[in-house]
Specification:
Helix 1 runs parallel beside helix 4 and helix 14 runs antiparallel to helix 15. The protein has 20 helices and 2 strands. The protein has one domain: Growth Hormone, Chain: A. It is mainly α. A two-stranded antiparallel ribbon has the order 1-2. The longest helix has about 35 residues. A hairpin with a 2-residue loop joins strand 1 and strand 2.
Length: about 450
């Protein structure tokens, strides 16, 4: 049931929107997490260089290069999303993203075709990264524009939570693979399964997204002839402040997400010598606690505002990271589980408000483009490099505590950025920077 295009909490349209946004996000993070969890195996398959650390660095470099393509994808798909609509672009990017992931699962190894193997891997990672540049901006914008003003954080939390579930699923799936087949079989063909599976899921996601209607906010913009002719130019010249605020906040979210939910599992195995089972259990526990926490703090954010929750989350991440790494250094597995879970909860606090807050600050006519640019620029710099920088810091300093500096520094950047934000919780979305709200209201009536 809808009223003047506004979805009710029980609206079938809203449920479909949540599923459509969540499934694409699930596929994205299932693939990223699988790559991270299989980093050691993939290093031997595609980058068999002189030492294990060099092989791991090369693998994480290929992981990070896809993020360098995301800003280009943000520019390309962000412009189209604000010109032709959210639905069409979301349906398109999922096909490109899942298709390139599927091809990764078919690539020959270095032993089979030599240097062409890592070249093809990097090429597919770049294509996947380009497509992923249009995913988060579209999904977050879609949900914010579908949701009721008083429940936006709660609604967007389903999108965020799908990334937690994807990581937990990938961790459990890879654990199941390693338990059921030999390491030789895993290196020969087992690593391909999650990538091939992502491709199949992409077809399902495309079908679901193609059945949706576009958001009421965008359709009203079309009716009032308020669609921007040049969304990228307009976003950069007129809303550069919001883009910088988004980039500053996502610096923490991007770095901490990959660090906490992907890299730390590898860290526990490589640096602390934990078994695959122990590291996987720790990661899944962390993800479950994050999934439970995000909805509670999203509800609070919808009631008291975005800024208090964002500030709390940024400070918690900044203050907790070094003590948790000290806990890791004890080697006590019970303490490691609690410390890892604590980091997940701290990041969930921040993410519970970040999605709606950073989408709400842009007007409808450049919302997809503006958010996508800020989000993907920051993720490219801080998220894609997180695993590589953490591995490099340990390699250079010799200290297993040094990776904590990554989250600590981005936490300070995010804290400053949050302080500059305007509060948007519960407010009606701004229809257009040049199309007055009164015109939209009149058109609706």
């Amino acid at each position: 049931m809808t009223t003047q295009g506004i979805t009710t909490p029980q609206s079938p349209a809203l449920r479909k929107a949540i599923i459509a946004a969540a499934i694409g996000n699930f596929i994205t993070w299932f693939e990223y997490a699988s790559y991270g969890f299989l980093a050691v195996i993939l290093g031997r398959v595609f980058f068999p260089v002189s030492t294990p650390s060099a092989s791991l660095l090369a693998t994480f470099a290929a992981f990070g290069i896809s993020f360098l393509m995301a800003p280009l994808g943000a520019l390309f798909f962000g412009r189209l999303g604000d010109r032709v609509g959210r639905k069409k672009i979301l349906a398109s990017v999922i096909l490109l993203m899942s298709g390139s992931t599927f091809v990764i699962g078919l690539l020959p190894s270095y032993a089979s075709i030599g240097i062409l193997s890592p070249i093809l891997m990097v090429a597919m990672r770049m294509l996947q990264g380009f497509a992923s540049g249009g995913e988060p901006g579209g999904a977050a914008t879609f949900l914010v524009e579908y949701a009721n003003p008083g429940r936006r954080a709660w609604t967007v939390s389903y999108w965020h939570c799908s990334s937690f579930i994807a990581n937990a699923t990938a961790s459990a799936f890879i654990l199941g693979l390693t338990s059921s087949i030999s390491e030789a079989a895993l290196e020969q063909w087992g690593w391909r399964i999650p990538f091939l599976l992502s491709g199949v899921l992409g077809v399902v996601a495309f079908y679901i997204r193609s059945q949706l209607e576009d958001t009421h906010a965008f359709k009203m913009l079309q009716e009032t002839e308020g669609v921007s002719e040049a969304p990228i130019s307009e976003a950069v010249t007129r809303h550069w402040r919001q883009i910088l605020q988004t980039a500053g906040c996502i610096a923490l979210q991007g770095a901490a997400f990959y660090f906490i939910f992907v890299y730390i599992e590898t860290y526990l195995k490589v640096q602390l010598g934990l078994s695959f089972l122990q590291a996987s259990v720790s990661n899944v526990t962390c993800l479950v606690m994050a999934s439970l926490s995000i909805f509670a703090f999203a509800r609070i954010s919808d009631r008291i505002g975005r800024k208090p929750i964002l500030l709390l989350g940024a400070l918690l991440c900044t203050l907790a990271i070094y003590p948790v790494f000290l806990i890791f250094s004890t080697g006590n597995y019970g303490l490691i589980l609690m410390g890892h879970a604590l980091l997940g909860i701290c990041l969930a606090v921040f993410m519970s408000a970040s999605g709606p807050a950073l989408v709400e600050i842009f007007p409808t006519r450049v919302r997809y483009a503006g958010f996508s640019i800020g989000f993907n620029l920051s993720v490219a710099v801080f998220g894609g490099s997180a695993a590589y920088v953490a591995t490099y810091l340990i390699d250079v300093t010799g200290s297993s505590l040094s990776p904590a500096l990554l989250v600590l520094s981005t936490g300070l950047i995010a804290t400053f950025s949050v302080l500059t934000l305007r509060e948007t919780a519960g407010r009606q979305l701004e229809p257009s920077a040049s199309c007055p709200a009164s015109l939209t209201s009149a058109k609706r009536g």
